[in-house]
Predict the 3D structure of the following.
Amino acid sequence: MKQLRNLSIAILSSLCLFNINSCKKTDDSTLQLPPSSSLNMDFNFTNYTKSASATQSQLNHAIAAGTVLIWSAIAATQTDIPSASFKKALENKPVYNGIDKIWEWSYVTSIGDDKYNSKLTGNVVGDSVQWKMYLSKVNDNNLTNYLWFEGKSNQGRTGGWWILNYPRADGGVIVSEQGLKISWSFTSDQIFSLKYLYIANKKYDKDSKTYVNNDDKGGYIEFRRTTDQVYDAYYTIYSLKELKKYEIVWNIKNKNGQYTPGDKTKLCWDENLADQTCN
């Protein structure tokens, strides 16, 4: 009986060696994904609305919001699909490929009427993790196993970067082009930063309905959250085309803030978004 028990243990151990996926623990040993804030910038600043009296103007905040809206439009084009796919990964558990030593999340992402077969992989190299997200659009042979984004992070989930590729149609053929580079750092939900650097060579022109040279390439927007009591949120925006830097600081709870538009005079607003003289 003892020999039979030892034989059973030996067989089970062998099965674990040849089928690591089924024997690998998926609790504390599971590779942890970076936080969702590593990919998604907070653009709620553009959605602030407050009633104003007939004697109040909210022009200062509106001007600041308009500057951010330009970037929210760029981000929507570049990040909507990969962001939705990444958020879906957070809802799923990965399996471990012991042969290739890669963690893999596989699932379906629904975006509007479209469905994508999503595969996210994580490969531990030293103290870092290399990430790749592949998407295949259901019923579309032109977009199969497309590397939509890749990146690198430390295992502590406190910092890293992403490169987002953008599939654009060129003469009926899908051309892959790098669109955004995202750099991120994360301490907590109240202390983190996220930077979008626009690296696309081409951008879509609605008037000509073609892709033209991207004169915004090299520009960036950075969003920071802090625990500062006065202003706890910051945007820094740089336009390479204009060679100008714009800065916005505000209080997320109270919504008062100030905007420094390049080399022009600072603009300020109060808790009701009403224009006020800057201190």
